[in-house]
Specification:
heterodimer, A: 303 residues, alpha/beta, six-stranded mixed β-sheet, four-stranded antiparallel β-sheet, 10 helices, 13 strands, elongated, B: 535 residues, mainly alpha, membrane (chain B), transmembrane (chain B), transmembrane helix (chain B), Exporter of polyketide antibiotics (chain B)
């Protein structure tokens, strides 16, 4: 499938702070791509480079068929952006901001706008200074989602939304993709949100992409948790490569196994006679924490 | 719970946050009278020379408008008089400091965080007032010590210091009051500065209109009028401190009462709802900029129209005063006829107005920086709006806003003065020309600020305002402290021809416009190449 945006080897420094250190990102047309990483990993910096607001120190970026820095205004007709902290003009009403931003982008679907205002339960008459954090976020979301654009860049868009609105957001994004085949780059902290919405995921840490692929592919790279009730105590399980965190309690065993070694481990279990078996694939949270924790270990060693 | 609990801790917080800013304004402002005093002393070394200078200026309407009346012709009295615009400045600073530590904190949501700790309802306001009034008292002592250091009597020096501190205190209390009214700090500042402007105009009008040695009762409507009635170094009137303290107490009491009746974060004036949909015209960066700048443009234009009326009236009374003085009349007739004096007054007041309107130019230019730092430029710049058109949408107001305000002032000056001498047809174009000829210098400051915004965005506000500060210093005080012409030439305002009356020198105006244009172009080019947002 065709890539709608490609970034490779992006580097960016702010003074002595290194924000990006060779980041790669590919988003395909029509997919919802999850962009995951802890605070300060470089997600917002990447998005700002994609928007042509920041100039990368090194690396290449292609957005649609152009260069975000040089062709910013042409490319901006085709995308909409929601920052993680939407700030509004204190003396403009929410409705005015939504209309203004839509018009500046080149068009707003009025029916869609009214529908979204209703679903997000947003009062468009309030002035910018009177909105709470969550409501400012809704203003940004309605303005972006009601625009006629091909690509949505959403940078932690649901921060400050309550669980009810979070659910509305998920439905709306799923509809966007199903209806118009829009592409979405969704940077997020909320792993359940990414798990529910995203076709593919990139995990960044310290300004670098550490994993990228579909959730199935990512799971393949990591461990499955197995809990089994056996006929007799297991034998030789501990010696198998790829088996971790083994706990044996009589005939009860529980361990984690690297996905490529799953077959060998199961053979060992059936040799002992399986009475009951629960196999659980890793959640995104575990995937994420695994990368996050290795970062911590590194930091401790460095200390 | 004690409504003042935690005040001490909050005072320390204010002193910590303002540890650079507060000592800076206190010390600099305390030094102004000393510098003025010492330069007057150098120019007029003997007591007789000083009082000769003072008597010459007793009836000078421009001086009466700008600085008030001279009540004592000794070195101390003349210094106190000549430095009196410092009282207005200290008042405005004190007011802004109080708003900064009350309404700004509330608007930013920090007041809420602090309020959840063991802090009383009134502690924040009380702390802001204690810190600001305390700073004014320190200023009073420093000012008095500086003047006694010049060899002036201690009594008069302390009277002068207390007059300044009382003015600061009154406007701090005004700040406390206006901070209760609106939800937005910007609106509170606007109301406060309008009050300060009205106080200045009432004092100026009352002083000009007075009979004999005393100003008219109109001056007594303004705290600035009372404080000049301290008559430091002359027949001192210590009792004017009594109404000052009473007014401070009254304003503070009202502010506290208002605060007790409202929610944190809310204003007394209720926030209004806006339209659910944008008007059809709100579809371009310029339309957005108009929404953001229109309040400022209307306010400045209205204010300058009022200034124009006052200055037009002053020019007329200057002429009347001349009619009673045969000797001066002869001098001015030799210089260029009867209208020469009013010409000088109009040219002088327009020069001062240009310095004031530069504040508007710098503020409108820095709006770009405010928008960027608040991350409000981002949503616009990620649409099909390019950076240059976004920047120009704001710069239109920085360049043409001062033009509109000055044109209003020039028109009204010409109209009022022209009507009073029976020749508006001649005076209106002359007033307009006097106002508009100032603009190239104003534009240089807007250009400088734009260049900084492009090249060094974080420094732009500080350096932009400092640039205006240097021009104010050179323009208002520079000649009085005998700076060399080379130093005075640094200010673009030095190069503006004195119109009406003088020759319209075109070359300096063209050079200033070219410099302003080059600085603007430099700023825009740099802005196009740099990262956005720099926060």
């Amino acid at each position: 499938m065709e890539n709608i945006l490609t970034a490779s080897g992006l580097r960016k420094h702010f003074g002595s702070t290194r924000a990006l250190d060779g980041l790669d990102l590919e988003v395909r047309r029509g997919e919802v791509h999850g962009f995951l990483g802890p605070n300060g990993a470089g997600k917002t910096t990447t998005i700002r480079i994609l928007l042509g607001l920041l100039k990368a120190d090194a690396g290449t970026v292609r957005l649609f068929d152009g260069d975000p820095w040089n062709d910013a205004t042409t490319l901006h007709r085709r995308l909409a952006y929601v920052p993680g902290d939407v700030t509004l003009w204190p003396n403009l009403s929410g409705g005015e901001v939504i209309d203004l931003l839509g018009r500046l982008r080149g068009g707003l679907d009025d029916t869609r706008k009214n529908e979204l205002l209703e679903r997000f339960d947003l009062d468009p008459k309030k002035k910018g200074r009177a909105y709470s954090k969550g409501n400012r976020q809704k203003v940004g979301l309605v303005a972006a989602l009601a625009s006629n654009v091909e690509l949505l860049l959403l940078d932690e868009p649901t921060s400050g939304l309550d669980p009810l609105m979070e659910e509305v957001f998920r439905q709306v994004v799923a509809e966007e993709q199903a209806r118009d085949g829009r592409t979405v780059l969704l940077s997020s902290h909320i792993l359940s949100e990414v798990e529910a919405l995203c076709d593919r995921v990139s995990i960044v840490r310290d300004g670098r992409t550490v994993e990228t692929g579909t959730l199935t592919e990512l799971r393949h790279l990591t461990r499955t948790t197995i809990t089994a009730e056996l006929a007799s105590p297991p034998d030789g399980l501990a010696d198998l490569p790829g088996v971790h965190e083994l706990q044996v309690d009589g005939t009860q065993v529980r361990f984690e196994v690297d996905t490529p070694e799953l077959d060998a481990a199961l053979r060992q279990l059936t040799a002992a006679g399986v009475r009951g078996l629960v196999s659980r694939p890793p959640t995104l949270e575990e995937l994420f924490l695994r990368h996050y924790k290795t970062g911590e270990v590194k930091a401790e060693v460095a200390r | 719970m004690n409504t003042l609990a935690g005040t001490g801790a909050l005072v320390r917080l204010i002193l910590r946050r303002d540890r650079v800013l507060m000592p800076l304004w206190v010390v600099l402002m305390a030094l102004v009278p000393m510098f003025l005093g010492s330069s007057i002393k150098q120019l007029y070394p003997t007591a007789a020379a000083v009082s000769e200078y003072a008597r010459e200026n007793l009836g000078n309407s421009t001086f009466i408008v700008l600085y008030g009346r001279i009540y004592d012709t000794s070195l101390g009295g003349v210094t106190f008089w000549r430095a009196s615009s410092g009282m207005l400045i200290i008042g405005i600073i004190s007011m802004l400091v109080v708003i900064r530590h009350t309404r700004v904190e509330e608007e930013a949501g920090r007041r809420e965080l602090v309020g959840s700790a063991v802090v009383g309802r009134h502690a924040g306001l009380a702390a802001a007032l204690v810190a600001t009034i305390g700073a004014n008292l320190v200023l009073a002592v420093l000012l008095a010590l500086g003047l006694t250091g010049l060899g002036l009597p201690a009594g008069g020096s302390f009277a002068a210091g207390l007059a300044w501190a009382a003015t600061g205190g009154i406007f701090a209390a005004v700040g406390a009051l206006v901070a209760q009214l609106t939800e937005g700090a910007g609106a509170a500042r606007g109301v406060g500065v309008t009050v300060a402007g009205a106080a200045f105009l009432l004092r100026a009008a009352g002083d000009v209109a007075g009979e004999g040695a005393d100003p008219s009762w109109v001056s007594w409507l303004s705290p600035l009028g009372w404080m000049s009635q301290m008559r430091a170094f002359g027949q001192q009137r210590w009792w004017v401190l009594v109404p000052a303290v009473a007014l401070i107490a009254l304003l503070v009491a009202v502010a506290f009462a208002l605060q007790a009746r409202r929610d944190v974060g809310a204003g007394l004036l209720p926030p209004r709802l806006g339209p659910a949909e944008a008007a059809a015209g709100l579809r371009s960066p310029l339309a957005l900029a108009w929404r953001l700048h229109r309040g400022g443009l209307i306010g400045w234009t209205a204010g300058f129209a009022v200034l124009g009326a006052v200055f037009g009236g002053v020019a007329k009374s200057a002429q009347d005063m001349l009619a009673g003085n045969q000797q001066l009349m002869e001098i001015f007739e030799r210089m260029g006829g009867e209208s020469a004096l009013s010409d000088v007054v109009i040219a002088g007041t327009m020069g001062v107005s240009a310095l004031i309107v530069s504040g508007y130019a710098v503020q409108a230019t820095l709006r770009m920086r405010t928008e960027e730092a608040a991350l409000r430029s981002e949503p616009v710049l990620v649409t099909r709006v390019g950076r240059i058109s976004w920047a120009l949408s704001h710069l239109v107001f920085a360049i043409f806003g001062p033009l509109v305000a000055m044109a209003a002032e020039g028109l009204v000056t010409g109209l009022v003065y022209g009507a009073s001498v029976g020749d508006p047809g001649r005076e209106i174009p002359r007033g307009l020309a006097a106002a508009l000829v100032q603009l190239p210098a104003v534009w240089v400051l807007a250009g400088l600020t734009t260049a900084l915004f492009g090249l060094r965005p974080r420094l732009a506000p500080a350096v932009g305002w400092a640039g205006l500060g240097v021009c104010l210093f050179l323009g208002l005080i520079g000649a009085a402290v005998q700076l060399s012409q080379a130093v005075l030439d640094v200010s673009p305002f030095t190069h503006i021809p004195k119109i009406p009356g003088g020759d319209l020198a075109v070359v300096p105006l063209v050079v200033l416009i070219v410099i302003a244009g080059a600085l603007l172009a430099l700023g825009l080019a740099a802005f196009r190449r740099r990262d956005v947002p720099v926060v």
